[in-house]
Amino acid sequence: GVYPVHEPLYAAWREVWGVKATSTEEYMHLKPGYKRRGFIYRDIKVVPRQTCGLFTHTFKRSEYPGGFHRLQENVLGGEMFESILHNVICIFMTHVSNYGHDRLGNYVAKAAVEYVQRWTNLQLSYVAPHVAAEEYFLLYAEEVAPFWQDPCRDPRHYAIWSDERRRCFNLPNALIVGPQKTGTTALLNFMTLHPKISRNHNTARHFEEMQFFSNDQNYLNGLDWYMRHMPMIHVERNRTITYNVSTLITKPSHFIVEKSATYFDSYLAPLRAWRLMPSVKVIAILVDPIKRAYSWYQVSTVAVLISDTSI
């Protein structure tokens, strides 16, 4: 529930337990490990967690997958050693069970520290988790805001995703991105006359527009909020999933369009949209800029007249 985010979990952490920091190995994806990143959500700092080769089911030496030498290779020059080399701040989770039985958790921690001290000039130190989180975002301030991704494109994310409806295939197939006063609303209305084309539901703040990718407040409402504003389309699609790659073979089905004219001049909207929907079609309407400016002037003038109660 850390990522993809589970809203009740974050609410309980913040309001009941006062949690300030946590970690995940799933953002952006589990593999490759060096691409994991952090983010801040609901005032909780989420830092990337590395893997040490120990899992819930590996608490006995004789039961380690592939033999105990595989664990030794991971610690002594393998993936765990590389994680320490390439990450200024490392967070590992070994599960409590690995500190009992054959104490593999103790072995991994001690062996990794001794190996680094013997073969490198790195200076290792321990800090409390919330301090590590603060230091992380001082180093990587650009990672503060999260990017939402389609949980259906990663089998691990899909398994973690808490939305009971699992709204796969209900993201938009096309985005009408504007700009304003170019006829985007008319285009949307004409498109939705077709029986197999639907549009997003209205929002309380922006009426027909979601403004999800261009408005920070809307974007931080989360992916589940965005998908709840999409029509529930039951379609027949065959899906073949490989790691971090999704191949869709689509039978005749519904087409979903979202229109937000503010996407056109938003710096973050293209990247946010691409992270979530890398194959989405983008529709923009380009008109004479003088006509567009005059149309926008007329709308602005009317808005001023309506808001000015002295007139």
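That was protein one. Protein two is written in the same sequence-then-structure order:
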Amino acid sequence: MWVHFENVSVKKPNEQYNKDPVEFIFNSTSSIQQLENTSIQVEYISLANLPSLKSDTIVNALVKVDSIEETKLVKDGKFLLREMTVFDKDGNSTTLTLWETNAERIPKIGELIELLGVKVKEMGTHKVLSATKNTEVSFNFKGVNAIAKKLRAFSGDVKSVFEPPVEANLEELLNFEGPSSKVFAVKATLASTATKTVSYLGCGKCNRKKLARGAICSYCGQDHGATELYRLGLCFEDESEDGFWITAFEGIASKLLSVPAETFTQWPQEMRTEKLNSLLYLQYVATVKMFEQDGEWQSRLLKLETLQA
């Protein structure tokens, strides 16, 4: 018999009293339902709903990696953690913290990660996600959830909510009006870049913009230091359109320019200009997500690859 649990916590039991591998903890909001078949359907939370959830709520999430921090040792060097910025299918973002063996893995920018049983935590005035020892983390997620793989009894198919990109031209992106978010792959030539403002001062923990070094981050509610991060404007053209601007942030821009923003901004202006000019008039494949925010359609650069000559 297959059953479906909702709002149930999972913990490792006290072996003195319980020899089972896990223990389920029910509360007044928990529910249990027998399933008609053995297909597994996973419901993923929208990150837009995080602020309304209580701290320590357990949820499932399907996210893509936007930026990655280096690993850190905390609590007197006893535990290893890695923090990263992730976003969901609607472009909502938050911070994800992974621990120990999961923190040792370095995911790629844009990699899809499934999190089953991840915990909602407070970070300053915001809600974030933090994996626990009971969280099932599936890197480079391909559509079969981790629980199903462990049970080896999966008879259905979980379709990823991140659909493969649709080929399009720049005019189609400029005229896109939904009705729902969509990811496109566009072949275009880089015609120009921003030259004056290519970076911003970001929080050393969450990458959000800071007013000054030493200032309290409005997102974290603390001062975690500050660093220069890319916010590089790129203008593409193709046969349909000659002026599509989009922003490349730290993950994509540092790969494109081969150096982090902290280094690039220290270069002399002539050297920076020469490096930016070396990117021009080459063909790229840009993976772009179009999504609605505050009643307007926005574009987000998810990936940028140079076409081989």
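The chain has six helices and 18 strands. Keep this in mind for the problem set.
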